[in-house]
């Protein structure tokens, strides 16, 4: 079953709520054909069919309901999850969804996670690479990691689009070209240096965009962590192979090959980043994997790994 685990859908009323709470960047998600209207869905399904994609796991990222005000975060998270649950209920063969959480409010996030996973049947949880400027490896998020580990849940991590909090990105028009993969890289290294994959081995952590620059940096990190970050509990290259990575590479074959060589093809899962890769770009997200990897590895990445990642949730999708 060909499952795309990096795909987005944003309803206009959800984005309007974020605007009313002070979000200023929702124009990036509007007018792209990634809403829930019937015409948009039919066009999306036809495109997926043309690429052989049977199923997409939706995430609200980067427009996650992460707000300093608790009531804003809680309302937006419930709205996002309810909208996704309704959509999945109408198209269970086409869609699953990752739950949104009202972070950084841990008690509310744990409550909403339980509702989304236990009552709404979601496939896992999605967050951004930082939570209002705080690293996911920050001790304040320990209760979240503990609950994800107890549940053996999938945690999907997507760039926040906050320029890695550096004006050297944000003031030079590189937010998504450079900033997003840098956010992936930084988040991955935060998790690795803090020993998160080792401490919480039951959490199936997925990084976007091949982990950013991580495939090119692992040997450097292995060579230098002992003196720069000596409390790191294991070699970065070993920790990286405990993670999963989606294949969004904009058709760049050397990047796909580097990721497969660095992490193993068994740690790569299909991602398209719809709607940002649409039309021929979405179809190229499939054929680039076939061009980059030997046939057995390409088949594993395209048609098997996502089901292994999703576990019992994927088993329910396969039932007649």
UniProtKB/TrEMBL annotation:
One of the GO BP terms on file: secondary metabolic process
Domain of life from the UniProt record: Bacteria
Keyword list, A-Z: Hydrolase, Lyase
GO cellular component terms attached to this protein's record: cytoplasm
Chain ranges of the Amidohydrolase-related domain: 3-311
Single GO term (MF): hydrolase activity
Protein name: Amidohydrolase
């Amino acid at each position: 079953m060909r499952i795309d685990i990096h795909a987005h859908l944003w309803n206009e009323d959800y984005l309007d709520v974020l605007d009313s709470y002070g979000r200023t960047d929702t124009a990036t998600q509007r007018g792209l054909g990634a809403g829930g209207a019937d015409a948009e869905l039919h066009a999306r399904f036809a495109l997926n069919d043309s690429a052989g994609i049977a199923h997409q796991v939706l995430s609200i990222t980067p427009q996650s309901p992460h707000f300093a005000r608790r009531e804003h975060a809680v309302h937006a998270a419930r709205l996002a999850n309810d909208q996704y649950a309704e959509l999945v209920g109408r198209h269970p063969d086409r869609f699953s969804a990752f739950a949104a959480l009202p972070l950084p409010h841990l008690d509310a996030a744990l409550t909403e996670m339980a509702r989304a996973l236990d009552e709404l049947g979601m496939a896992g949880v999605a967050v951004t690479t930082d939570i209002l400027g705080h690293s996911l490896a920050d001790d304040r998020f320990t209760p979240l990691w503990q609950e994800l580990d107890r549940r053996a849940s999938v945690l999907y991590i997507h760039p926040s689009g906050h320029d890695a909090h550096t004006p050297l990105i944000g003031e030079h028009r590189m937010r998504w070209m450079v900033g997003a993969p840098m956010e992936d890289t930084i988040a991955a290294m935060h998790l690795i240096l803090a020993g998160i994959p080792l401490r919480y081995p039951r959490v199936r952590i997925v990084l976007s965009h091949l982990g950013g620059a991580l495939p090119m940096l692992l040997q450097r990190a292995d060579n230098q962590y002992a003196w720069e970050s000596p409390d790191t509990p294991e070699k970065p290259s070993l920790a990286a192979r405990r993670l999963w990575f989606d294949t969004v590479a904009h058709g760049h074959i050397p990047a796909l090959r580097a990721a497969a060589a660095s992490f193993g093809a068994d740690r790569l899962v299909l991602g398209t980043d719809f709607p940002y890769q649409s039309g021929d770009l979405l179809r190229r997200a499939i054929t680039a994997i076939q061009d980059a990897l030997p046939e057995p590895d390409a088949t594993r990445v395209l048609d098997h790994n996502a089901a292994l990642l999703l576990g019992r949730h994927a088993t329910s999708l396969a039932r007649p």
